[in-house]
Write a structure and sequence with these properties.
Bound molecules: ribose-5-phosphate
Largest sheet: 7 strands, mixed
Distance between the termini: 13 Å
Number of strands: 15
Oligomer: single chain
Low-confidence stretches: none
Length: 290
């Protein structure tokens, strides 16, 4: 097999090391220095050989992590024409369309920058939407953590479990989770005010959740607003325990605490973003995609 080098960015070093191990590849770490004015300076610690894979998530500080990713790709391109850029959590993915007139589709700006830096292929995990993938003019592969999350939940003893998407946009994700878990799913109807960002659950009362343990499945948790509203609504329907499964747990500020206060027993996420809830490893699914 031809030689592969994985370069781990500061935001994804542990995941990058796991990926290198799975691929039997060389691993190179990067050293990061952030200047007092916020500029990033990165140094790779060895010379990459063969096909290069750059791994870096773009969770907060989103813009800094993007610049660092672009810098690593630019450096990698000096050594190889084949530079796969793995962005486990792709920031800006929610800015995939012009919701209100005059808005800029920033995801398309990111897509152009990655191509200009020299990426030949992109791999992301559970991209927010398939529409977003269309902004990339190079091959982009969207792999899913959902089967891994579902197998984690299969090991828990849940009472007559039901999978719930907090909004209709997440219906397919909930269906996939339910298929892997081996149960049914439903999707709530959520409304988000595009100006204030406030969310409301506008579903009618539900009998189907009464007494059942629920797994709320989402691609990401940012402020926790969507999950809190969904959990409060579901508790009013007299459900059993509520668990949350998500790929990307950003958990901004005290989102985790707010979610627990709303009646959620546990949040389980993947390691696209490192943190206390990041129990499910995605290095295997990324390795398969490579
Ligand atoms: C929305 O469509 C997404 O799938 C998430 O539900 C949402 O972005 C989560 O954001 P927050 O935690 O701030 O409600």
């Amino acid at each position: 097999m031809s030689e592969i080098t994985v370069i781990g960015g500061n935001a994804s070093e542990v995941l990058a090391k796991r990926l290198a191990k799975k691929l039997n590849a060389n691993f190179i770490s990067s050293e990061l220095r952030v200047f007092p004015d916020g500029e990033s300076k990165i140094t790779i610690t060895a010379k990459p050989k063969g096909k290069i894979i750059v791994v870096n998530s773009t969770y907060p500080p989103v813009d800094s992590n993007f610049i660092q990713t672009l810098s690593l790709v630019t450096k990698a391109r000096q050594f190889s024409r084949q530079v796969i850029c793995v962005i486990p959590y792709m920031g800006y993915a929610r800015q995939d369309r012009e919701f209100l007139s005059g808005e800029i589709i920033t995801l398309s700006v990111i897509a152009k920058l990655l191509v200009a830096a020299g990426a030949s292929k992109i791999i992301v995990v559970d991209a927010h939407s398939t529409l977003g993938l269309k902004h990339f003019e190079i091959p982009i592969k969207n792999v899913s953590a959902v089967p891994e999350l579902a197998s984690y939940f299969r090991r828990l003893r849940l009472k007559h479990p039901l999978v719930v998407s907090p909004d209709s946009g997440g219906k397919e994700r909930a269906a996939e989770f339910a298929k892997h878990y081996g149960t049914e799913y439903i999707a709530l109807v959520k409304n988000r005010d595009r100006k204030t960002g406030k969310v409301k659950i506008i579903s009618a009362s539900l009998d189907s959740v009464r007494g059942r343990d629920l797994i709320l499945v989402d691609d990401m948790i940012s402020t926790g607003g969507s999950i809190v509203k969904a959990a409060q609504f579901l508790k009013r329907q007299k459900c059993g325990k509520i668990y949350v499964a998500c790929t990307h747990a950003l958990l901004i500020d005290s989102a985790g605490k707010k979610i627990k206060r709303a009646g959620v027993s546990a949040i389980i996420s993947s390691n696209t973003i490192p943190g206390n809830t990041s129990i499910v490893d995605v290095s295997g699914v990324i390795a398969k995609a490579i």
